[in-house]
Write a structure and sequence with these properties.
The complex is a heterodimer of chains A (159) and B (785). By secondary structure, chain A is of the alpha+beta class. Chain A has helices at residues 25-32, 88-95, 105-118, 124-130, 142-154, and strands at 3-10, 13-20, 51-54, 57-60, 73-75. In chain A, strands 2-1-5-3-4 form a five-stranded mixed β-sheet, sandwiched between helices. In chain A, β1 and β2 (13-20) form a beta hairpin. In chain B, a hairpin with a 2-residue loop joins β34 and β35 (700-701). Chain B is of the alpha+beta class and 785 residues long. Chain B folds into three domains: 7-31 and 467-614, Aldehyde oxidase/xanthine dehydrogenase, molybdopterin binding domain (Aldehyde Oxidoreductase, domain 4, 2-Layer Sandwich), CATH 3.30.365; 34-132 and 209-286, Aldehyde Oxidoreductase, domain 3 (Alpha-Beta Complex), CATH 3.90.1170.50; 298-463 and 621-780, Aldehyde Oxidoreductase, domain 4. The chains are: A alpha+beta (159), B alpha+beta (785). Chains A and B meet through α2, α3, α4 and α5 of A and α1 and α15 of B.
Chain lengths: 159, 785
Amino acid sequence: MSFHRIGITINGEYEQVDIPSNLTLLQMLRDKLSLTGTKNGCNAGECGACTVLLNGEPVNSCMVLAVECQGADIVTVEGLAKDGVLDPVQQAIIDHGGVQCGFCTPGILISSRALLDRNPEPTEDEIREALVGNLCRCTGYIRIVDAVKDAAARQPWSG
Amino acid sequence: MATITTPDNVPHPVGDSVPRVDAREKVIGSALFADDLQFGPGLLYARIKRSPHPHALIKRIDASKARTLPGVKAVVTGEAFPGYIGLYLQDRHIFCRDRVRYVGDPVAGVAANSEEIAEKALELIAVEYEPLPGVFDPEYGASPQAPLLHPDLGKYVVANFIFPEPGSNISNHFRIRKGDVEAAWPDCDVIIERSYRIPHVQHVPIEPHVAVAKVDEQGRVTLWGSSQSPFAQRNLIAKSLGLSQSDVQVIAPYVGGGFGCKAGVSVEALAVAIAMNVKGRPVKLRLTREEEFYTAFVRQGLVSHFKMGCNKEGRLLAMEVKFYWDGGAYTEYGVNITRASGYSSSGPYEVPNVKTDSYCVYTNHPVGGPMRGFGMPEMHSGLEQCIDELAYAIEMDPVQFRKINCVKKGSTLVTGMVMHPTGLSECLVKAAEAIGWGRKDPPSAPNKRRGKGIALMWKAPAMPPNAGSSAKVALNEDATLTVSVGGQEIGQGSFTIAAQMAAGALGVPWDWVRVATPINTDYSPYEWQTVASRLTWSMGNAIVAAARDARKQILDMVAKAWSENPDDLDIIDGKVISYKSEESISLKDIVIYGISLPDNQGWVGGPVMGRGNFMPTYVTGLDPQTGQGPRAVVHYTTGAQAVEIEVDMDTGKVEVIRGVAAFDVGKAINPDMVKAQMEGGFVQGLSTALFEDLKLKAGVLQNSSFVDYRIATSTDAPQSIEAIIVEVPQEDGPWGARGIGEHAMVPTIPAVANAIYDAIGIRPGAPPYTSEKIYLAMQDAGLVD
């Protein structure tokens, strides 16, 4: 096994991390950087709990090798709020009661943020489609979908 | 003088939809779950060697090669752990000793410096088996022809309300003999007989099981885990290992979904057993998603047979019920699911003559455990389709038929217990109204058929008669409250209602309350388990008692300082007020430091800490031969669901367009969270109705991933779910409240099944109602080519 030193920007801060070549991005975030907000639900790219933004795109971080992320820009759930002010999707999911156990919530928030970044005014079908890879066993999804709709209306640039 | 604060001008925290107390930390990623806890470089990683056979004798285990692999710190087999473990029936060892009984049964455990090394070590453990014939069907398993899976059944320690039949595979046989069914059949105008085979399903919380155990040099155990049952785990692990309960400390942070599978003991005992061999080192055991599917507790399969009859006026006269529960290899909770389904086997109906035999049967399938609903979704799946069929058979509207027969206050229940006040009829009427019962809307496309279905439910908390709760309410310098409980936050909102109830009972705003987390059995007050939808009611009562205790201490202190009668005082919005003298004082000035008496005459009071507990004392035993007794359970939560669906005639796909859920929760402490339970439960129920089925082939699971075992996604959820709260107070509930968590998914399968019948005229039988199953049924019926 070989080891690598990679440079990576995580939630706006540049980090250098020493990693073995087989380490996943998820393991690096959780085990090397103690960013445990990103969750491990299946380690197989099937549940979406580990979703992070990789250069603005939502990815299952359990399916990405950390060495691939040299020079990349990563946003995790810990990076959504700015100076203690919640992202509109974070606030909306609280307001709509879209959180129960909270284990899928980080992945849901990241997928929602990615959707709103590429499509500021999504339809309900587009929201459901964007979240189809994020499994939730508690809420039944409807409140989450409502929250994303509401968050779209609350975007700073929204009329 | 300023206007006095009175109860009328301050909002009461109970009944208000306050936001969840744990929401903010969960959305910013700082809420800690068991796998998030940091243990430093000393942490070891455990993996489990599991049986590849559904049933076999262990002839030899050779772990010598594994022990010499660099990085391996311990290899553990059953040899060292002769003790039995089990909640109601102690029928298993921590590691198998002479026999394996399901694919996945733990045979050995390894602790190593990394998961990779532990995984390699498993391959070096050689186990020689002698395969035995297996039991893969509960009805066959209960027959005398079946191979015996637990020859020592007669020697196992068992709770006094569970009745195993040694010499057979029956781990519990629960009977109801009410009235005389044989005498009643001739009076029936219609009798139907139906059988249903309900498949195993899995809980699949998004957070897999994880446990970290550490054993110190004195043998004291600390266990961190994702747990619904910190105290039950402490108790069962201590008993199995011959330790004092006070030498086992269980620390349980937030649970990332439980639904029952994190109740009782599963991976925790394995982690502790391994850690005993590497004293001083924390050992983490985390299930893979694949293991989560085939080694975690499953919802038991059920073979149910119903015979029921009614007269042409629509009165249910008799029911004969047989349940064969597929309990799996061991029976942590299965024996009590068997009992619960037995004492609820009439469904929420008053039936004068009932004969029930409910069997829990050992099979070579994964271990049956408690899952949201505790037998009720499985049981109601068939029962509520039969009720629908009877109604149609006598040409009566199914809603009307249910109105006539559903339990009401004063009904004599299947156990002889008299029904307490219940809002079931109101739930039925409101659900029917909300779905537009009797109105047929056109389908959304020419190739679709539309239908509506309705189903009722009931469920009692299934637990030992004397399951207890306790709570502590401590006041801080700034008059905030720290509420300590042993009941867990598993997503259902227990910490939020804990805050609301403590605040409401003491007289402070709800956001002055912090609920102490994580649960720690060394510091948190005792709670039996976070199961049975019992916390709002049972833990709630303990919290109210603790808050009232604190309140009394405060009022006595102030009365003494002011030379007043405590009866003239009140606590409102964080202030003690006197209705008599119209004096007032802020709690923050007095709850730690007390009050100084006039003229430097000294002080009264001191740090205020209230304690409270609750345990039901009135549940009676049931006659083992007849299942009759004055009070079988603490209470029943009742409710109804209705759905509107479309069936695609080209594909057989069933789409649930909208749902209605109406439940009698006694009192909604937090109405919005009650509705959230109803919605989430509905979609979980819908998922089991349409998709879920653990495919077991001769004991081997065929679909152990989210790709092969599909659960409902965002695109499967209905367009809307209307949640209706009915409030007929529970006599001994806090503000009248009773539980709702599990009930929300109980009637969904039959509601969907009844809607499928309404749409296409086919009774779909057992779930899941996959496109394939429905299409083939439509072909059989000649509806499609």
